[in-house]
Structure of Maltokinase:
Amino acid sequence: MSATTLPDAPSFDAPAVVDAIAAWMPTTRWYPSKGQQLDVSLEQRYDLPEADAAILLLRAGETLLQVPVAWRDEPGASPIAQLTGRWLVDACADRRAVQAILDVAAGAREVDGLAGDATSAPAPAGGIRVIAGEQSNTSIIGGAGTWIAKVFRVVSPGDNPDVVVTGALTRAGCRRVPHLLASLAGTWPAGDAFVTGHLLAVSQFVAGADDAWELFRQHALATLRGEQRDLPDARALGAAVATVHHDLADALGTAAATESDTLRFVTGLEQRLAWAREQAAEALAGLDEGLDAAAARLREITSIGELQQIHGDLHLGQVLRGADGGWLLLDFEGEPLRPMHERSVREPTLRDVVGMLRSFDYAAGSALQELPDADCASAGDWVFQRQSEFLAGYAEEAGPVDPDDPVLRALLLDKALYEVVYEVRNRPTWLPVPLEAVRALVTPPPLVTPPPMVE
Ligand SMILES: Nc1ncnc2c1ncn2[C@@H]1O[C@H](COP(=O)(O)OP(=O)(O)O)[C@@H](O)[C@H]1O
Ligand SMILES: O=P(O)(O)O[C@H]1O[C@H](CO)[C@@H](O[C@H]2O[C@H](CO)[C@@H](O)[C@H](O)[C@H]2O)[C@H](O)[C@H]1O
């Protein structure tokens, strides 16, 4: 039997390769510009020749995307395209390529333009598993289940808080976050200069954990079906969030908001409201009056209290319940649709509190989508109860939260509007969940007509 000689694969920067990736990306969960016709071009290539692989940075419209790829003789777990007889594959699902990337992050191998930073060396990749879930990035579990490597898909110049903030909490010994083991940064040309941004974070993998989103969503579903199910502890979750806020304040400091901080905060909310109205004009049509009134109310905010580093995009999908029952917070990257330089700005901790309150609403909203004939009032009660438990636990550690605080109300609307844009771009079938919240937040409650007097 004679061995088949495969033809040479094209170079990673060949137009056919870029075209193949451009056609494949919109089929992935992480691609952030679904439904838009964008020109895709290669901006930077970091070669990993020992693995026949490369990390590519591709520009799609305004966005720079990280796509690690490799050439293989077989399609493997995640093929992109077959070109000249060889397979272009997604390197995140390829063990040899993942090991090569990990080696650079751990400082065991040097590649031009890449810089690794390890606090403790991750174990060899071994058999890897790519998480298939509701994710904006791509996460790979390896090292016999000891680490999880997150490949940042949208890449920006500047520090990624998922590396910097998790790194600070790791050094501070915070018990409510998985510790950071290593990270990788890349440098690429931007105009006349070079810029640097994070590409990868490798953290301890929490084995045997339960996802808080699934725990609460399943409980909401069971409630709507009239079934019994163990109630996850929202009160302890509130206390865990308060502990992380406390550790972040200790590690990275706090500052009382000045007048100009307040003005910047209010202006930021106004800009985001205008941005959401522009980005999701069709979805938000019909809410103009309420949104105008909400925008005017923002100017009534005169004080926003103490500021500090926060999580920035906290929701149930960022929370795990460890095998010991304790809650752990993940993913300090901030909101993926927010520019990177805005994500390390000190903020009121209420922004995270609001993220969790919205998430309980999402859990019930997603349960209602699955059970369209279920009772909406029961879903509303479920949300109210979980939110109350969460706030009670938070208050135990951090002091009470006033549900009528204008800053809290403004942040609730800000988050729901962000979610509307996120769903329009990423998961249009989920749009009704945040849209209903926006409607409720900007629509004044109906005037109750007093019952007629009975003589
Ligand atoms: N350290 C960890 N241990 C166990 N599972 C994790 C860990 N980090 C992330 N995960 C799992 O991966 C999922 C996605 O991680 P996340 O950091 O939120 O990524 P993304 O930024 O893409 O949303 C989480 O919801 C969780 O299920
Ligand atoms: O986890 P990411 O950092 O990628 O956050 C983005 O995606 C989230 C969805 O995966 C999105 O969260 C919204 O949906 C969740 C349910 O899937 C819900 O729990 C959240 O409350 C809701 O905001 C998040 O907004 C987005 O930034």
